[in-house]
Every structure is written in structure tokens, then in C-alpha cells.
Amino acid sequence: MLTDLDIRKCSYDTYVGITVITSLAFQTNKKTTEHYGTNQGTSFSLPISKGHIVGFTGNYGDFLDSFGVILHA
């Protein structure tokens, strides 16, 4: 079971007037992934330390517009 998640070394940038996520990487208590995407733009991270991960959500078209984590307390 995943108990820790750190969405790290991620980035976002603007393409054709739209702010999009350009890269994602995940670190859990089990494994760290390689980057997905181009890893360019402004860096951000989303450390999660409380709750249980029950799912992921996002919005995309030609690009990944948003990404979120669904937690249960």
C-alpha cells in the first residue's frame, strides 16, 4: 500500500497562452519514478504527508492542464 507520496521536481509552463504541466515525477514509500514530460518551465512540488491516497484526478486536452490527488482522512 502506498503510504507516502511526494510529487516532486515537477514543472509548468505556458504554451499557446495556456498554463500546462510540463513534467511530473513521483516519490512514494515504494519507489521513485523518472520524469514524465519535458522538465522545463517553473518548478513545483506537492508533498503529501497526511491521509490515504484513494485516487488521482486531472484535466487534459492537447496538454496536461491540471493534476490532483484524492485523499481520505
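the 2nd protein, sequnce then structure:
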Amino acid sequence: MLRLRKDIFRWTKISNYILAYCNHKQTTNNDSLLHEIILLVGYYCVLNQDNQCRLAFGNRPTVLQQLSCLPFRYFVESKYMDILFPTLISCSFDCDTTRAILQTEMSLDLIANFIETKLTEKKATNGDDNKFDISAFNMRFPFEEWNNALQYYRPISKRIEKNYNDEEKENESHRIDFDTKS
């Protein structure tokens, strides 16, 4: 058990170093390595709170902080968002500690919008996913959790607004039904 803890500690330290190095020296080869470490971190954390919390502690900046401070292109260009965002979701979904850290570094609206986009894309393709692309969102975070994740990252104010709008639509439909019956 002690050996496993040491190995996990080494793994997070190595991940932290690779993230720092690739972020500091940006080259094509380093971008490939960076993408691989981002994927690996995501697979390490998905639906595992112990592993999620391990990324939040240790030497500063932590792995989680470094992921949330990658170059701007990872937050605005879809090809880079498709690499980073599933990992951010895997690192922080259903873990209030890591979500709070992530929220200090970036807006959670970006993550909620990403999930909404992926849900829309999935509906548009009738669920036909590329089952062999290990970097695809559906391969890195379980589809069954997408709606839960959307609720988890959507700000409370938007949830209340959405519920209010849903109630308004329901009331409007009742008024239309009442008017047609009269």
C-alpha cells in the first residue's frame, strides 16, 4: 500500500512537471506530449473522487491549476477544447473541492456550454459516435452522466432561470388549452 501511494505521488509529480514544461516550451512535439498527458490525467480521474482530490494538492501550481491555466486556444478553439474540457470535467465532476479550485481559475459556464454543445451534437447525429476515438468526449466521460454534469456546472442562477422559464411555458400552454376550450 505504501508503494502504491509513492507511485501515485510520483505520477502526479511527473504529470505536473510535464504540464509545466510543455506549457513553457511550446513546440509541435511538446503539444503532442501535452495532449497525451491531458488525456491520461482525465482517464486517471474520471468518476474517482480520491484521484480527483490528489490533483488538487501538492506543490503549487497543482496539476489541476496548470490544466485550468493552459494557453487561451484551449478555451476558445473547439479542437483544443475537445482535448482539455473532458479532462477538466473528469477532474472536477461531483467533487466540490476540485470544482471550487477550478472555479477560481475559470468560469464554469465554459464547461456547461461545452457539455450542452456535446449533447446537441449527439442528438443531431442520433447517437452515432466514433467509438474508436479514445479522445472523444463520449469515450472519456460516460454519456449517462452528461446531464448530471451539465446541472453540476450550470450556475444556480441559470438553473433557477431555466426552471422559471419552464414554468412560464407550462403556464402558457395551460392558458392556450383553456382558451381553446372556451
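Residues 2-181 form one domain. The mean pLDDT is 81.
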